[in-house]
Design goal:
Length: about 300
């Protein structure tokens, strides 16, 4: 099992894929979340339903959770926000938890605060305010405003870890962000949910690890055809709509190529892949586009980036 202190202080950047799935529930992948840990900072990018459990299962140092960055407010990206706050506080977090995200973040955060208010009171009454300090129980909203669509905004700069937000296109979800993380010469980019845009290519340049969402439209179409035959019109409509604001695996590969990425990790995997054949179908055509390593993300995957000698 991972030593919690070691990963916080060994000077490397540790990345944990806590959830690699999309919104279609299945028993192999939970929803969206990535943990980035380095130089004393522990940051979560999205915290979809079921993902915070994996942070605990992987023995991540949850009492040291410093901040959460949300890409957008679809439920598969925010459902565990209350759990992340409650469980990190109960485990000993000694500062309020900052939650960064697009405009609208206050509404989301205040809603979670309200939903967990009674539980917070129960726990203080039960264990005492010396153990569960009320001042650390709260989430703190940190709205990010990007004035010019093409710019990226530095929104976190602490302990050599820099986090930039940039706009993606997940319309009608506006604004929606991707994040670029820089640490000791390494670059990690998380696309969030989006179609492929010039802005995304621009802000993903020279990334060591590119976490890119992807949905196989071909596989989705097979499900839609079956649902049509069964006259499941509501299901057909929703699955059809999904196709206008995401990328396909081959589009993710094109992005990785244009961004000169070293490694592509495909996440937000949809539809659920039940066997090796389904995985092959999902990744069809990807190898012919991107020469670098392609990894089909799975829950609890770990990555480690050693500091580079020359800082970029
Ligand atoms: Zn979304
Ligand atoms: Zn999503």
């Amino acid at each position: 099992m991972i030593s919690q202190d070691k990963i916080l202080k060994d000077g490397k950047l540790h990345i944990f894929l806590l959830g690699s799935g999309g919104p279609l529930n299945n028993n192999t992948r939970v929803t969206s979340s990535i943990a980035v840990i380095g130089n004393g900072e522990f940051i979560l990018f999205d915290v979809g339903p079921g993902t915070f459990r994996n942070a605990d299962v992987m023995r991540l140092p949850i009492a040291n959770l410093s901040a959460i960055f949300l890409t957008h407010f679809h439920s598969d990206h925010i459902g565990d926000l209350g759990e992340a706050n409650m469980l990190s506080w109960v485990n000993g977090r000694n500062k309020p938890l900052e939650v960064y995200g697009p405009m609208g973040i206050e509404k989301v955060v205040n809603g979670f605060i309200m939903a967990y208010e009674l539980d917070t009171e129960y726990r203080i009454a039960h264990h005492g305010s010396d153990i569960l300090q009320p001042e650390f129980s709260k989430l703190m909203s940190k709205p990010i405003l990007i004035e010019n669509y093409n710019d990226r905004k530095l929104c976190f700069d602490r302990n050599e870890l820099k986090i930039y937000a940039f706009e993606v296109d997940h319309s009608p979800v506006k604004p929606a962000f991707g994040y670029r993380i820089e640490y000791k010469g390494n670059v990690v980019v998380i696309t969030g949910d989006t179609i492929k845009t010039e802005n995304l290519v621009k802000h993903s340049q020279n990334t060591d690890l590119l976490f890119c969402e992807a949905i196989s439209y071909e596989m989705l179409n097979n499900i839609i055809t079956g649902a049509n035959k069964l006259k499941l019109t509501r299901y057909v409509r929703i699955l059809t709509d999904i196709k206008n604001y995401h990328m396909e695996p081959i589009t993710a590969a094109k992005l990785a190529k244009e961004a000169k990425a070293k490694k592509l990790v495909i996440i937000h995997i949809t539809p659920p892949l039940t066997n090796e054949f389904a995985e092959k179908m999902y990744l069809k055509g990807v190898d012919g586009i991107f020469d670098g390593e392609v990894i089909l993300g799975s829950d609890c995957m770990k990555f480690k980036l050693d500091p580079k000698k020359e800082l970029s």
